[in-house]
Structures are given as structure tokens and as C-alpha cells.
Write a structure and sequence with these properties.
Elements: E1 4-11, E2 15-24, E3 27-37, E4 41-43, E5 46-48, H1 51-68, E6 76-79, E7 85-88, H2 109-114, H3 119-126, H4 135-144, H5 148-151, E8 155-158, H6 159-168, E9 173-174, H7 175-178, H8 193-198, E10 209-210, E11 214-218, H9 221-227, E12 233-236, H10 241-247, E13 256-261, E14 264-271, H11 278-283, E15 286-289, E16 295-302, H12 305-316, H13 323-331, H14 353-363, H15 372-397, E17 404-408, H16 415-425, E18 428-431, H17 436-448, H18 455-465, E19 469-471, H19 479-490
Parallel strand pairs: 1-6, 6-12, 9-10, 13-17, 17-18
Antiparallel strand pairs: 1-2, 2-3, 4-5, 7-8, 11-12, 13-14, 14-16, 15-16, 18-19
Amino acid sequence: MNRKYFLAFDLGASSGRAILGILADGKLELTEIHRFVNQMQLINGHYFWNIFSLFNELKTGLKKCVKEFGIQPESIGIDTWGVDFVHLNKEGLILSLPFAYRDQRTNTSMDDLFQLVPSSEVYAQTGIQFMQFNSLFQLFSMVKDQSSLLDITDTILFMPDALNYLFTGIKKSEFSIASTSQMMVPGTCNWNYDLIEKAGIPAHIFQEIILPGTVLGNILEEVVRETGSKPVPVIAVAAHDTGSAIVSVPSSENNFVYLSSGTWSIMGIESPHPIISEQTRQLNFTNEGGVDGTTRFLKNIMGMWLIQEVQRIWEAEGAKYSWPEMVELARQSDPFKFLINPDDPMFLNPRDMTQAVRDYCYQTAQGTPQSHGETIRCIYDSLALKYRFTLEQIREVSDQSIEVIHIIGGGANNHFLNQLTADATGLTVIAGPTEATAIGNILIQAKALGYVGSLNEIRQIIANSFGLVKFVPSEELNWEAAYSRYLDITR
């Protein structure tokens, strides 16, 4: 048995992991090597990420793999969330902690930029949905504020690119992560310098864009000494976590909608080309870079963030619930009693998510949830209905046949929400794999080194390796009436 080992670093907005992938005989096995907390840091009124702590955790993961598990990986790959970036000076030194996308300095940036460049023009040139934290608006807020940090910036690198740089000393921008910035020409590896210059952003700070599966270079000698690893190559995988996750959809047919379920719910289709029109702008869809030249046509939905936050608030108040306990509280509560629009701005980063849910329900004349179970059920019902809403929008603007929903990522373990999703949409839901992002990361590494030949082969390996769970729509509840009420409440 010829076993090959690959180490994936998968960083989310709340935690990070080092996952070892073992590829042998057309199957993949996973072993968690290291797990750590990642949290925004509130410093002097702004939210930041601790890039130095994250780098140390990744090195710890590599060191554990080699010294504690006794396995030398063939390569490493890094994926993270999108849009956030690191500033470097001319000497290549990191100038500050990178801002976190939930920081409020961008609250007015979209409207301010649209005074210079109409929103229709921005969308036509980028194909990216409007979210106030997109890199374009983060950088424009610095231009508007005459930031001294921007004045001394020679280079920006998105989060996974910056971590790749710390490992290798090589500065490149990977395609999938760069595409989240709203500063690229859609479907190409080119920066949109016309838009960048209109926004007053220095053009020289952007790096060459490379495709997923590019071998960047070997880890630096100082990292070799610290970790005990051989000087293995760092692969630029699909560095946006959703880009890696979509690699893991276990389907040989292009007849599916994917739903990458985690802190964010990412719902969309895999398209051979960008889909950009006035209608997709009005519906706020995005076109991000995928693997093998594909486009991830999708919409970001405020996903398990809402549940994570109410859980956090209640724990601080002395009520600590496990995930299964929260689901059981929801099961015991009446369906459709309260509904919210998960994407309302009031849920982006409230001080108290529970109060935000109450406020939304009160403002929409529904009364207010009184129990924890009612709040949880409100969120789950609303997410399922939002998925249906988004599915119907995708059908409006795409001619792609949609027969099944593939739910991947950690949310694939939530059988209750998966069933609600099947019921709300009327489509069969196939859940799994749960470690989709790490799997996609690992198998793009394997493809880059010649051990896997194609995206179809990757998906066959995944189908052979991981158990999937099917959810068939039921007719126990009146979802049509609930959807009609959801539309009335959220308009």
C-alpha cells in the first residue's frame, strides 16, 4: 500500500485545525493533528486578527505531525476565510495586525465609494456581491480616512497568502482568495486596475495572481529548524475555505446546488463561467474563483454564526448547551412562530445576538421569543426558508438543472436543519462530508504533486471515502404558508 501524507491547515473565524490526509488505494483518511482557537481581538475600538499567533499555531501543527505523530507530510496547504489582508512594508515586514472583516470602520464605505463609482459599474466590473467588508471597501475606507498605514504599505497579502509568505518568503495572491476582494476582472487572473485606481487605492500593492494547485516553494530553513520537518513544498490550494470546500462536493453530475454550512452558509452552483447581469446585481449574487477554471456563483448567508452567538451569550449567563441540546430545544418548540431575515445587518456583529433576534421579531410585529428553544427554532426555521429563497433566485438567473442540495462542512452534522432544508426546498439533501474544506485542501495538494489527475477523480475519491446521509422532503408541516409569511416579514 503506497500511502501519501498531506497536511492541511484550515482556519475559520472561530477556530483552526491541522488535518493530516492519508491517501492510499483511491481512498482518503483524515486525522486531526492540532486544533486551536481563533478569535477577533478588540483593541482600541477596532477588531483585528493575530496573524503572529496563527502562524505559531500552524508551525505547532507541523511540528506535532512530524514529532508526535511521526509522519512527514509530502506538502502543506493553507485555507482561510476571505476578504481580510495583511500589510507589508518594502522590507517585507508585517506592519500591523490585520483588521477583521466585522470591524465597523467600513459601515459607510459602500455608499461613499458609490459616490465616485456607481454600484452598477462596480458590479459589472467585478461580478461580486456587495458586502460592506469586501476588501475593496476595507481599502477604500483607508483611502477615505487618509490612513498612514496605507501610506507606508508596499504589499497586501490576503490571510492565506500572508501565512504562505511566512512559511516560504514568497509573495503571491491565490486566485480563489483574491476573487473575494471585489477587485478582480471576473473569470480571469487579472486585477481590475481601472476600478482600483478610481477608488484611489495604490495599484502597486497587489501581487501576481496564481491558480489553485500552484507549488509556491519550500518552507524556509528557520521553519525547518523549528518544526523538525523536511523542507517540504507549500501548495497554494484553493485558499478561500469555500473554494476548497466546493472541491469536496461528492458528485459526478453538475445538477446540484451546494450549501457549505458553517459560520457562514454559502449557497450556489459551480458554473463554467461568471454569471453577471443587472438581475444578478439586484439579487446580490457573487462570482468567485474556483478550481479548474470554474466560477463559484453563490450567495453568502449569515449561517451558524447566529446559533454560535446565542450559544455564547447564554453560556456567559450560566446556561451552557451542547449542540444536540440546542437542537432538542428547537424540536420541542412550535415551528414558524417567529421568523427573521438572517442577513439583516443587525445580525452582522451585535453585542447580544439573543436581543437582536428579539428586536427583529418585535419590529416586524411578531412579538418576541420568550424561551431559548423559541429563539433557536426561529433561527433554524429562518435559515431553511432563506435557503429556499436563495434557491429560487438561483433558478431565476441560471439555466442549470438543480435536482439535489449537497450540504458540506460542519453543518452537515446538523440533521435537524438538514431535514428542515429538504422540507423547505422540496429537494433531496445529501449531507457530507463534514470536513469538506480540509479534504479539498488535501486533494488539491495531491493533484499539484501528481498523485491525483482531475477534479472528477478527486470527487470519486471523496465519494469512496466518506459516509453520506440523505434527507428526503416530508410534508409534515405547511412550508408553503411559512414561506409566504417569511416573504411578508422579510420584504
